[in-house]
Specification:
Layout lengths: L1 H15 L5 H18 L4 H28 L2 H4 L20 H26 L3 H14 L14 H22 L4 H6 L1 H14 L4 H6 L5 H5 L1 H24 L14 H14 L3 H31 L4
């Protein structure tokens, strides 16, 4: 019985795509740390609630994406899926029914919304409510009709905004109880990198996406030209960090994130050589996730260090 229960749990974890929840951890951590940097206050209870709530919304997004990509035939048409792309495959492998996936998505969104409403009540304003409504709406309509944002060449931008400035600002507000430009500006590199996680995963999905009319940026540009945009966005990430340090928007300690440039260079070079080779491209898929995680943590540590020992 215990083996059976463990098997079911593993299927739900697979459907939720738990390893990709770093996309949640990084912006929540960054926004909360910047609030502490600015105010000296940190509420661990609120931090854990925000982390759980955003993780639930992230899981709901993954699930509803799987459901509607199944309905459109996108995931069924995808014979080139990888551990990073092509969905969780729980529907295609017969491990969960489409109905159960949609129900799991609803429960995840419900949990995230309840947490958001509770925080909104505790803070006695409607900022969390409005940010939450925007996030949930974009999450659902990423693949849901009638908007189908991810099918119209806008999905990458929406994901970057949601898991960059939107989550960082929301996490900051819950702690600081005020809005500010520093968390928004600091979130830009994180938003670009989470966009690139989705973007690099679209290369293996190219044929299936094109077949069902899912017009991702990679489909619209074609793989060869899409390589250049990946490289440009990586350069923009590091340039933005450097400029915001120069203009003293973020602490100089954040420059330690530039030590990841060799990994970024290897990822970009590999994409250039292997954009048509799914197996060899996996290095760049994994490297992009690592860049997002490492840079996000280093930026957070930069604010912590500058609060403890200001950079002269």
């Amino acid at each position: 019985m215990s083996k059976l229960n463990f098997s079911r749990i593993s299927i739900y974890l697979k459907a939720a795509r738990v390893p990709f929840l770093t996309a949640t951890l990084v912006p929540v951590l960054l926004g909360s740390v910047i609030a502490w940097y600015k105010t000296g206050l940190f509420n661990w209870y609120f931090f854990c609630l925000v982390l759980l709530g955003i993780a639930a919304i992230n899981i709901g997004t993954n699930l509803i994406n799987d459901y509607f990509d199944h309905k459109s035939g996108n995931d069924e048409a995808n014979l080139n899926f990888t551990p990073f792309s092509g969905g969780s495959r729980v529907i295609q492998d017969g491990q969960m029914s489409p109905r159960n996936v949609s129900l799991f998505a609803f429960l995840s969104f419900f949990l995230g919304s309840i947490i958001g409403l509770y925080l909104n009540f505790q803070l006695k304003t409607n900022v969390v409510l409005f940010l939450g409504l925007a996030g949930v709406a974009m999450a659902i309509f990423y693949t849901a009709t009638p908007l189908k944002i991810g099918y119209r060449g806008m999905g990458e931008i929406v994901v970057g905004l949601c898991f960059g400035p939107l989550v960082v600002l929301g996490s900051y507000y819950v702690q600081a109880k005020t809005l500010g430009m520093v968390p928004v500006v600091s979130a830009v590199p994180i938003g670009i990198l989470v966009l690139l996680i989705l973007y690099i995963n679209e290369f293996p999905d190219y044929q299936a996406d094109k077949a069902v009319g899912k017009n991702t940026v990679v489909v619209l540009l074609g793989k060869a030209r899409a390589v250049y945009l990946y490289q440009i966005l990586l350069i923009l990430t590091y340039s933005f960090i450097l400029l915001t340090v120069i203009y003293k928007i973020i602490p100089a300690y954040c420059l330690f994130s530039l030590f990841t440039i060799p990994l970024a260079y290897k990822a970009a070079k590999n994409v250039s050589k292997n954009f048509n080779n799914t197996q060899r491209l996996l290095f760049s898929n994994a490297a992009t996730i690592k860049l997002h995680l490492i840079i996000g943590i280093v930026l957070s540590l930069g604010f912590i260090l500058d609060r403890i020992a200001p950079f002269l």
